[in-house]
Here is the input.
Amino acid sequence: MAEVAPQIRPRRSLKPEVVRWLAARGVEVADLAEIVYKLQVPYNPRLTMRECIESVEAVLDKREVQHAILTGITLDLLADEGALPEPLQQIIASDDPLYGIDEVLALSITNVYGSIGLTSFGYLDKCKEGLLGRLNNGENGFTNTFLDDIVAGLAAAASARIAHKVQES
Ligand code: MG
Here is the structure.
């Protein structure tokens, strides 16, 4: 009897949910695209905001990216509710500079498009461009320990995706 290939059932996309979660924490696709534009326009003067938005959307289509976003925002959210067990509650709520797992999680987003993304991530982590500066100052009124790195990771990945396309064309 012929062997039957296992059926892989397509799972529903988490993207609409992820976009809603980001928006609820004050992060819009347009904000991300703006950071991507500023990163890439020096190398690509004909770049448009539309291409940047498309690139952010493509990054948000990746399941590993969606999982990283859901995980990070959940931890920020639980920290806001004081619902994490100690010592993690104190560490995440105070954005302890020695913690570092927020950056590690965000690198799983950046790594999707290889090492170009890594350089941009490092740069964004220092310069706190646009929305990143506002998150860093806590302007959305939430704990952003994971969210700021997620935003940098998304912008770096979308930016690397554009850089790869320019190199290939
Ligand atoms: Mg952080």
Observations:
- The first helix runs from residue 15 to 24.
- The pocket of magnesium ion is lined by residues 102, 145, 148-149 (CB under 6 Å).
- The chain has a mean pLDDT of 91.
